[in-house]
Each structure stands twice: as C-alpha cells, then as structure tokens.
Write a structure and sequence with these properties.
The complex is a heterodimer of chains A (291) and B (237). Chain A is an all-alpha fold and 291 residues long. Chain A has a domain of 179 residues. Chain A is built from 11 helices and 2 strands; from the N terminus they run ααααββααααααα. In chain A, strands 1-2 form a two-stranded antiparallel sheet. In chain A, helix 5 packs antiparallel against helix 8 and helix 9 packs parallel to helix 11. Chain B has 237 residues and is α/β, with parallel strands linked by helices. Chain B contains 10 helices and 10 strands. In chain B, strands 6-7-8-3-9-10 form a 6-stranded mixed beta sheet, sandwiched between helices. Chain B has a 4-stranded antiparallel beta sheet with strand order 2-1-4-5, covered by helices on one side. In chain B, helix 3 runs parallel beside helix 6. Chain B starts with 5 loop residues before the first strand and ends with a helix. Classes of the chains: A mainly alpha (291), B alpha/beta (237). At the A-B interface, helix 6 and helix 7 of A face helix 2 and helix 3 of B.
C-alpha cells in the first residue's frame, strides 16, 4: 500500500474516530454509572442532528455553534427521561432497564419517523471551510473541525467528572450510593444529571455529524451499535476508554472499508467485538470500574 | 431532660414489620462526647440510621438544634449540622483522598472549604501526603482518618461515628482517640458508637448502654465502668 494512501486512510479513520469517541463517551458514562444500557442513545444522536439541521436551515446557525444548543436540548430530554421514568427501575437488574430504554426508544424513534419521515436529509454548508492538503493527504476542514470539537467535548466530560463538584458526586454515587447519600447527595438528581450528560454528549455528537452524514431516524441503530462496540473495545465506563475505543474503531473501519469495501464496515466492527470478547473482555484500557 | 441541642425522645423504629428499637431516649449536649455501646444487634447502627434520615421513626421525636425533625432526608439532616462517619469507613474507592474529603463538603456553598481542608490535613498530615492517591490504597487506619476528615468537612455541630475501632490496631485507635478529643475541642460534639467499650469509655464523658433495642443503662462513663453488669457483660472483667 502506498504511503500516501495509508496515511490518507489513517487520517480518515482518526477523524471518524473522534466523532465516535464523543458518541461513546456518553453511552459509556450512563452504562458505567447507572448500569443502564441506554438503547435511546442512537436516537438522541439523531435528535441532535435534526436540531443542528433545522437551526441551520431556519436560523442560519452554523452546526458547530448549535452543538451547544443540541447539547442543552438533549440534556433536558435526558434529565426528564431519567427523573420521570427510568429512576423508577434504576436499581432493577440490567434486563429491566434495557427493556425500558428499548421501549422508550421505539416510542421516541417512531415519533421522529412520524414527524420527520425516514427520508434522508443532507445538510450542505453554504460556506464550507474547504480542504486542507498536506503531503498529498486531503482533509476536509469541516470534518477536521468536527473531530477536534468532539475530542474537546470528550476531554471536557473527563474534566467535569474528575474535578467538578457534580462530577465527584456522580463518581461517589456510583461507588457507594448510601455513603454518598450520607454526604448529602440526592442520588435521584445525580442519576438524572448523569443520564442528561450522556444525552448531551449524544446530542452534541449528532450536531457535528450533521455536517458529515445524512440525517434520518433510521440511522440511530447504527450509532447505537457503534457506541456499544466502542464501550466494549475501550473498556466499560471510562471516558479515556471511550476515547481510545472510538479512535481505534474509526481507524479499523477506515482500513477495513478500504480492504473489504465500505459496505462491510459494520461486519468488521462486530468481528472486532467478538474477537475482543474472547481475548480481552475487559477492553483495551483493561480496567474495571469508572474513573 | 430538656437538652434541645440533640435528643431522641421515646423513639421506636424497625425494618418492615420487625421492630428493632423500643423507647430510645438519648441526648448529646453541645461540646460533649457521648458514647453508645452495646453488643451486636443491640440496635446501635439502626439508631444511627434513624438519626441520619436513612430510616424513619415509627413513633417518638427527633430534636436537632432546638427543632423537631419530621421525615427529614439525609441531606436535610446534614444541613442541620449532623455529620456521619459510617461503619466500615465507606470511602469512595476510585476517587483520590482529596476528592473523598471534598465529598464531605458537598452541600457547602461557602468559600472556606479550602481552609477546612487544610485543617484536616493539619490533623492528619499523612492525608496531605497521600491526597492524590486512590482512597482504596490507604491502610485501615489512614482510611479511618480520611473518613473522619470527610465527616468534619461538612462542618458539623455533631459528628456521629460508627465503630471507630473496627479492624484497627490498638495503637492506631489510641491515636485516633487523641485526635477526636482535639476535634471535640474545636466545638464539635461527638456521638460515638462502639463495640469496644474500653475505647468508648475512655473517650466519652457520658454513655448509653443499649441492649435488645432498649436503653439498658445510662450515665457518666466513670460510673458505668464500675457497674458490675457492664463490667461482666462488656468488659470481660
């Protein structure tokens, strides 16, 4: 393989991977802290994409700015879902919460289908930022910017969990709910904030993805399955794991697409998942528990 | 009895249909160290759960800071100035020592949290040294220091300590006892729950002996220490 092609594919993979990391970080947070496999996650991404699309069409707001808007909208949706519905079964076995989020996803996703239809929308920027060329490698600047923004958000989430008051409470509730309660933490509120943050990450990623991929409610399962693979790949429940897992999946898909054809991208990610479950079930980062 | 600083008055409580506490009356005065002793299953931990709002009383009254507390949640109890060092330390593993201490100040909005953090580091210099380490890497004694530090980070008026000496070497317990006296001198009252009666009586000036969910004996610890029943049942003398 020519060196230029190799690096071109690598760069494509990393750009994609950065966005994957952003999607997976939120999914991983919810799984790790609440022990909920959130089937709604893919639909949250799609809602983020639609928010960015319509903000651009009707208000002329650039998707990179509506990342904030989409994040806020999804945080509110996520908070209310958890506080109003999921909190009722949060301590139940994982199958119960899985069934619940699955049901909620059916409801939400089909509502989107009714409102927006399944037709693909494509957001075409009036003023694209052009293409960067370096040593024969081409990178669309919009994609690059989306990746940088996505990685920035992922790092921000890491920082929030590590160094903020609310982040400490999230980790504390995960470690020992009763002890956290004795410190004055309202666990129900913290659960809802955690779920809201997960949705926020999904929504922001969705807004950025709107400049790259076509938008439709039916792509939600695609994002969900990628988040799932990345979480297992990177190691469950850590932001750093999601980051590494996302980048790895992006690169693997990129090279896999080149070698086997882009239509096999999903097959490749799931083959990777199966191999990993056999040989390294704790994931690349290899740690249990949240950090 | 008319001490309004902290008082349980004829409290009964239990889990589901099972009654655990009968007619418990206990009080702590400002700046006092009081202990509650008794064997396993006497109702000590249940009493603490009740005080901290994790369990609701069936009957009786809980009075904190001159007010009767009705159906308060743990965060409201903490806001009223009752902090807790739970049994078995219950530190947050995976979090640094410093973050564990800061969790104690979770409800505080004032700017003096850093000052109090330094105060805790002053009491337990080893915690300052290890502030960036994962709490689970601490030794048993250091974990108890961290738990006590976390407890006083909420700036309580009354600190509940559940099983101070559990699983710790006598020398470490001795050290902790001295530090608790120091903490008490800064104006924090302490209600110590202990199985180790010797330690409890050394630290506290008054004590309550619980048995089968009832207050069986009470009084100054120097008198309790001379009580033949206590000596036989709890001190093995």
């Amino acid at each position: 393989m020519a060196a230029t092609l190799f690096f071109q594919v690598l760069v494509n993979g990393l750009v994609l991977g950065g966005l994957y990391a952003c999607i997976a970080a939120g999914f991983s947070l919810v799984w790790g802290v609440l022990n909920i496999i959130n089937i709604l996650h893919g639909t949250f991404v799609v809602i983020g994409s639609y928010s960015a699309y319509y903000a651009y069409i009707y208000l002329g707001v650039h998707p990179f700015i509506s990342v904030v808007l989409a994040g806020i909208i999804l945080f509110i949706i996520g908070y209310l879902f958890q506080r109003g519905i999921i909190n009722r079964v949060v301590a139940a076995p994982v199958l119960i919460t899985l069934s619940l989020t699955f049901g909620l996803d059916l409801f939400l996703n089909n509502s989107l289908l009714v409102v927006f239809s399944a037709d693909y929308l494509k957001l075409n920027l009036a003023n694209p930022l052009g293409v960067l060329q370096f040593a024969g490698i081409y990178v669309p600047v919009d994609r690059l910017a989306a990746m940088v923004l996505a990685l920035f958000l992922t790092c921000l989430l890491y920082w929030v969990l590590e160094a903020s008051r609310i982040g400490r409470a999230i980790v504390a509730v995960r470690m020992d709910r009763e002890a956290a309660t004795l410190m004055g933490v309202n666990a129900k509120h913290i659960y809802a904030v955690t779920f809201g943050l997960g949705a926020l990450m999904a929504g922001s990623a969705g807004a950025m993805l709107s400049v790259i991929f076509p938008i439709s409610p039916i792509v939600s399962t695609l994002y969900l399955s990628k988040a799932f693979v990345i979480c297992v790949l990177g190691g469950l429940g850590s932001v750093a794991g999601a980051m590494v897992g996302g980048l790895v999946l992006g690169v693997v898909e990129s090279f896999g697409g080149l070698i086997f054809g882009p239509e096999h991208a999903m097959t490749i990610s799931f083959c990777l998942l199966i191999l990993l479950l056999i040989f390294r079930p704790t994931g690349i980062m290899g740690k249990k528990g949240y950090e | 009895m008319s001490n309004d600083f902290f008082r349980l008055e004829n409290v009964a409580a239990g889990y589901g249909d099972i009654q655990v506490l009968w007619d418990i009356t206990i009080d702590v005065e400002p700046n006092e160290i009081v202990c509650m002793v008794g064997s396993n299953g006497a109702g000590k931990s249940t009493t603490l759960k009740l005080i901290s709002g994790l369990l609701k009383p069936w009957s009786g009254r809980v009075i904190i800071g001159g007010e009767e507390v009705v159906y308060a949640t743990p965060d409201q109890i903490l806001a009223k100035g009752v902090g807790q060092v739970p049994e078995g330390r219950r530190l947050f593993n995976g979090m640094s020592v410093k973050n564990n201490l800061l969790m104690g100040a979770y409800l505080r909005k004032d700017k003096e949290v850093d000052k109090d953090l330094e105060f805790v580091y002053g009491l337990f210099p080893i915690l300052k040294e290890r502030r960036k380490q994962d709490a689970k890497t601490l030794s048993g004694g250091e974990q108890q220091m961290c738990a006590i530090g976390r407890g006083i980070m909420s700036r309580p008026k009354l600190l509940l300590i559940d099983e101070l000496s559990l699983g710790l070497a006598p020398l470490v317990v001795e050290q902790l006892t001295e530090t608790l006296k120091e903490i008490n001198k800064t104006g924090i009252s302490i209600l110590l729950v202990e199985q180790d009666v010797m330690t409890a009586f050394e630290l506290a000036n008054r004590g309550f002996v619980l048995e089968s969910g009832r207050v069986f004996l009470k009084g100054p610890t120097r008198l309790l220490a001379d009580n033949p029943t206590v000596r036989e049942a709890y001190m093995g003398i």
